[in-house]
Amino acid sequence: MQEINQKTLKDSITFQGVGLHNGRKVNLHLKPAEVNHGIKFQRIDLDDNNIIEANYKNVKSPVLCTRIENSKGVSISTIEHLMASLYGEGIDNVLIEIDAPEVPIMDGSAFDFVEEIRSVGIEDQNFSRKFIKVMKKVEIENGSKYISIEPLEKDLIIDFEIIYENPLIRTRRKEFRLSNGDLTSIYNSRTFCLYKDIDQIRSQGLAKGGSLDNAIVVKENEILNEDGLRNGHEFVGHKILDCLGDLMLSGYRIHGHIKTSQGGHQLTNLLLRKLFSNDSNWEFETFGGKKEDPKGKLYPKSIAVNA
User: Fold this and answer.
1) Alpha-carbon span 13 to 168, nearest angstrom
2) Could you give the CA distance from residue 43 to residue 48 in angstroms, rounded to a whole number?
3) 3 pLDDT band (50/70/90 cuts)?
4) Final residue before a domain boundary, out of 128, 151, 179
5) What is the mean pLDDT of the chain?
6) Distance (Å, rounded) from C-alpha 92 to C-alpha 6?
7) Does the CA dihedral 187-52-4-123 come out positive or negative?
8) Has residue 307 been placed in a domain?
9) Which one, 21, 49, 76, 298, has least CB within 10 Å?
């Protein structure tokens, strides 16, 4: 059954950790927000121009993470795991205060974010939620990489394939259907890298905060983490987690069927840009409740659907 109303947190949540790429200590605060606020980050270490809207149009240089930037050049990076948590847990409106330019990596998955969100609870705001309904197939090809989205009624499917030469990771594929309800294996899937790539990544000034505590490291056919994998699909599960977080940058939950091979942050962002570049590709749908915003303006392109 569709959750027809917008939702926010019942109370504030605080996290502490380090940034995966900059290695800096960071404090993160999630705070309840009013109807139609959406998801916004506020850099509280800065006095001016410190609000960054979580929107696909604000994505800049999505290499090894998703980074968003406002019109004044103020940015926040590695937002994808937190955004995936908000997508999966049904949070529409939240203010995210942060005192550094990167979201803490925690254990490399969404586990800590989801646990804390569930511990404080979710507040139903009794105000209509909008969904993006995909009207026709949109696709992006970039060499051997591919991603597409096509119409699907009242659900989201992510069919994700990864292809690695590494003998342990190999080619893996998993289909995730949001309506199944259990996101545990997706939430728990950690970021990963190849041991042979670490020096190159760090030479770019990245992964300064990376360790076996927050990433799976694969060396040839061996996993260097003592506890191994959390589940048999953890590699591709993490890619689905990233994709879910990047889709949340549409500002809404999406009804559509995504198929991708060797996808990533950049490809998902290109897909959203192409999807929303033409009004015939999509439209809003609602499932009952109010259909007007607090200022009395009708949502654009909205269609009402009986649940």
Assistant:
1) 38
2) 9
3) confident
4) 128
5) 93
6) 6
7) positive
8) no
9) 298
Catalytic-residue membership of 238:
no
Q: pLDDT category, 62, cuts 50, 70, 90? A: confident
**Confidence check: pLDDT of 293 > 80:** no
Tell how many helices (H) and how many strands (E) occur in the chain.
6, 20
Looking at the fold, whether 107 and 21 belong to one and the same domain comes out as yes
143 belongs to a structural domain: yes
Q: What is the pLDDT of residue 2?
A: 67
First to last CA, the chain: 8
How far apart, in whole angstroms, are the C-alpha atoms of residue 175 and residue 157?
Answer: 7
d(CA 60, CA 62): 6
Q: Is 302 part of any domain?
A: no
DSSP run (H or E) holding 184:
helix 184-187
Query: What pLDDT, in 10s, does the model give residues 233-290?
Result: 999 999 999 999 999 999 999 999 999 999 999 999 999 999 999 999 999 999 876 6
Range of the domain at 198: 132-285
- 140 and 251: one domain? yes
